[in-house]
Amino acid sequence: MLLTHAEAESLLYQEARLLDERRLEDWLGLFTEDGLYWLPMAEGTDPLREPSLAYDDAGGRAQRVYALLHTRHHSQIPPSRTLHCISNLEMEPGATDTEALVRCNLVVYELRPGHRQQYGMGKMRALAGRGEYRLRFQDGWKIALKKILLLDSDQPMTNLTFIV
Amino acid sequence: MAAAYAQLIREAPDDFRIHTSLFTDPAIFEEEMRRIFEKTWVYVAHESEIPTAGDYRTTYIGKQPVIVSRDDEGNIHVLLNICRHRGNLVCRDERGSAGTFRCNYHGWVYKNSGELAGISHPQGYPESVGRDLSGLLPAARVATYRGLIFASLSDQVPSLEEHLGAVRPYVDLWADLSPVGEVRAHRPHSFAYEGNWKFQMENGADGYHPRFVHECAFQTMAHFLSRPVRDSSGMQDIGAIRGFPGGHSILERPGMVGIDPSLFREYTDLLAEQHGIERTQRIIAGYNILIFPNVYLMDSNIRVIQPIRLDETVVHSHYTELCGIPDYVNVARLKDVQWRLGTTGLIGTDDMEIFAAAQSAMQASAMPWLRLSRAMDSEVIEPSGERRADINAESSQRAMYREWLRLMSAS
Ligand code: FES
Ligand SMILES: [Fe+2]
Fold this sequence. Notes:
A: alpha+beta; Nuclear Transport Factor 2, Chain: A; 6-stranded mixed β-sheet; 3 helices; 6 strands; globular; B: alpha+beta; 10-stranded antiparallel β-sheet; 27% strand; binds fe (ii) ion
């Protein structure tokens, strides 16, 4: 059965909730085994040969989550509070019973609580990007590709150590 | 003023201190731009970023906007990106390709060599206009070494080779990571941090901090042994720091971080064919090379430090692809350097967290002196002026601040 608009929406909302609640090990479970989490630096780049902000296969995601949850990762002490907002969701035509391509806009609000006297603390910021999700049916719908092209993907970034 | 700088850097045989105003005084920042960035060789770009005639990229030498261009004959120019008419920026794009640059204010046109090609509506001027203007102001000196393009806004500088001095053989080792001696610098991972530019300059050759600041990366590496990473368990006790006259320095970190080239036999065989086994071992040993005042060369990246304001710095970390080696080795190198030093990488981001925190704390005047005296007593001083000590030494930072003081105090 084709993925419905409502089902796509609820999968993306679920992902947003897991990230915002820092249930990152559960987040890992949303991906297919060969799934990718990709923040390109520009449209049309080859992620194996040209730099990306992030290009994580299963191993890369597991390492990122491990670093965030189980190590002294200074740029996440205290951790970022995030709020992932998904909108403008569109289903690309050409979906099959097992594959679907969903596009959306993503805004992430982020805050590290702390003294305003300290650079980077106590100040809310917003990141915005265009999302492309390739979803695949494998014991339920899973993420085969999460690709977010941030509006400022090729501009100098400050502390992008949380998961977009 | 010049004499006053000597008060801010205190050196005794067993003590080296710098004053926090180097990080917090806006007047000192302005003077640094003038006395350091406009008076010495500054790294501006890598040749591979402008490979063909007409290619250009824009950047800054301190506060001065410049265009690094390749003219129709293939010559490299470093031109002040300021219109000779009324001072508008001539080129806004970060990179591109163009035969001419046309100022968008009143339409004056410059060739990609900088030469003034045309003044719009010239009949409005007396005939003499433009005759005194050759075109965009060029940097006083431009030179390249192993693909690295440097420029100086002052002509009172030694040759680039002389300026690089003792660090030059290390630049050769770095460039020879490619068996054909050619690297390609990619679009950078770019960071902005809220802290002074000297924090990043101090940090890249600071072997004392990794076990603390990079606990996260080392723990994660240790947990996931599948990556081809070098064994980091014995780190911190091997390797060396070498500080040089001119402010440059080397962090030698054999076995510390990065991919292990010896796992890629096909690659190291190519190097050995070219350079022999002994030199190959030196090439792949692993160095962070600091070229004062604004660039680091590391195994897989060129890290360029761009001061913006007293408490704001941008760092561009260009992944460097090696020409003439198997593709899969470059794929592994990119993955590794992105994982460590990329925008979301585990190492670079934690460094910048410290820079912002240090800048925050130093706003306070309660603790005015910073200590950089580690290993002053054990440092070996060579006749050449090289000072060498163990990897935890602060020899690099001392070398840098000696050069800082020399330039800031020059009349
Ligand atoms: S300022 Fe450039 S043409 Fe007038
Ligand atoms: Fe570091």
